[in-house]
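Chain A, query sequence.
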Amino acid sequence: MIDYIKIAESVKFYESIGFEYIDVPWAVDLNWINVTIPEHRKAFKLDDKYLIGSGEQALIELVASGLSGRYCCVTPCFRDEQIIDNLHKKFFMKTELIDTDASVENLHSIMNDCKEFFNRYVNNVSIIPVEPNSFGKLEEQATYDIVCNLGVDIIELGSYGIRTHSDVGSWIFATGCAEPRLSTVKGYENG
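Chain A, predicted structure.
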């Protein structure tokens, strides 16, 4: 079950450190979905738009229209997942962060802030580098995950990095809180 209290607490936390909360569309043009959708995954059409797989897709649509700065949003994420289990869902809720000041120093600061938020709920949280993905015209650099080490299992809590797209410029993307993933990890830790 999605713990909306954790989502609300995440918004309060990120607002307190300078992210402005904004409402974003839950469906955008396909070109913004294609910026971050993994290969061999499908987007879900809704009228003349497509349901977002992450708030990042809605945020970059707004950045392309002139939005600049540090923002957070809460959206459902609709995913074409191949495996459905306790950690992988066809849809979930997520607080997403974006910052158009895309410096590596700023990325590390945001990751440390996110790690601080996750440490409120689970132990053994760390930041690890991961191989950048390649999504068509999108360049990724300095890509990381924040994970929880449960001894036998290491579970991702969120993804972080700097992306560049010819129609948008560069931005930092960051997971502020994904539910029910955070609650599920907390349950494993207590279980």
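The domain at 4-190 is CATH 3.30.930.10 (BirA Bifunctional Protein; domain 2). The longest strand covers residues 154-165.
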